Predict the structure of HicB family protein.
Amino acid sequence: MKNNKNTLVYPVILHPEDSGYSVEIPDIDHGTWTQGENMKDALMMAQDAVGLMLEDETDYPKATPLEDIVIKKDEIKTIVYLNLEEYRRNNPKTVRKNVTVPEYLVVLGKKKNINFSAVLTEALKNKLDE
């Protein structure tokens, strides 16, 4: 795995439930919780929770070393990691932008039911090699 500043690694605690797992992420927002129907789902939900909580941040909480995490007998401690740059790319927020285009293109686009936002997004992705 390529090491970069956008890859975040945090310990999590899986708490077995009657059905599935609840997941504690102690270092995020003074303790964040999520859940999953099975272990794989629980860990994916934990990754998503980390992404949601930190996507707008630039200063990330320090991760507690895994060996410092204390668990009870039936609990499981492990880690989740997330490339935040990739997370942001795959879960983009939309921003309203005003643009100026020639009037005749607006008229033609409306006649053909063109989604201007979709066309602009596609053109920007192509231009930026995204």
Notes: The chain has a mean pLDDT of 91. The chain is about 35% helix and 20% strand. The longest strand covers residues 7-16. Helices lie at 39-54, 84-90, 103-111, 116-127.
